[in-house]
Design goal:
The chain is an alpha/beta fold. The chain contains seven helices and eight strands, in the order βαβαββααβαβαββα. The chain has an eight-stranded parallel beta sheet with strand order 3-2-4-1-5-6-7-8, sandwiched between helices. The longest helix has 18 residues.
């Protein structure tokens, strides 16, 4: 898995995707991947629209593996607010990840940073789950992608196929998503960078090895057991 392609030149990685796409799961795992490669990584949680399944909820796990976390703040209310420390990622030679809200409204927060981001070498990844009705076809996914770009005032540089069914995800889901992602890539002239999938699925035959991105599933629903979290932690320790 060449999970570090172009990273030396692109120090800022922006992760966006529709609710249910698994964008935060990918952002957390991407942070782990960069850390294992020896980078000093900072992950900033910019999702101030939807407080569920956010990367700031994985702060302990991230920091235990060497990732610095900049979390949005609640202040005197339950509504998250942007942490001004995020400006520290808008400098050159900083390895940063921005986990951004999963729709056009959530991406609007990027608009205020767009002039500065445009001076940097950056990646803007759009995570796609073709099992979600809002992005079920390449045509729907393209409309969503363009809305994100318009709100962010930035151009997407890569697509992430993360077609999944949560705990029921199988290799067939990943492969079906890969086919649809390639169709979308041809439409929008944006390459598919990674095919993401739960590590337990195993090897995915038929896709370029350098694009495979197995993930440790860190974000659990309230009804899922702590035992699953423990299994993921054991997998990490065994690497």
């Amino acid at each position: 898995m060449d999970s570090l392609q172009n990273k030396a030149e692109n120090h800022l990685h922006i992760i966006t995707g529709h609710y249910g796409s698994g964008k935060t799961e990918f952002a957390v795992n991407f942070a782990f991947c960069l850390t294992r490669a020896g980078y000093a990584v900072t992950l900033a949680d910019l999702d101030i629209v939807n407080p569920y399944f956010c990367s700031r909820g994985q702060r302990e796990a991230l920091e235990s593996r060497g990732v610095r976390v900049i979390a949005s703040t609640a202040g005197d209310t339950d509504v998250p607010a942007l942490n001004p420390k995020v400006y520290s990622l808008l400098e050159k030679d900083v390895c940063g990840i921005l986990d951004v809200g999963g729709d056009a409204a959530g991406a609007r927060v990027l608009g205020r940073f767009a002039p500065k981001i445009q001076t940097l070498a950056y990646e803007l990844f759009c995570v796609l789950n073709f099992n979600r009705p809002e992005t079920a076809t390449p045509e729907k996914a393209e409309r969503y992608l363009r809305e994100i770009e318009h709100s962010a005032k930035l151009t997407a540089t890569g697509l992430i196929n993360n077609t999944h069914l949560c705990g029921d995800t199988a290799a067939e889901d990943v492969l079906r998503g890969a086919e649809l992602a390639e169709t979308l890539a041809s439409r929008v002239q944006i390459p598919v960078r990674y095919h993401a999938f739960p590590r337990r699925v195993g090897n995915i035959a038929g896709l370029p090895p350098e694009t495979l991105f197995p993930m440790d599933i860190m974000l659990k629903k309230p009804w899922e057991s702590d035992r699953e979290l423990e299994k993921e932690e054991l997998l990490w320790q065994e690497k």
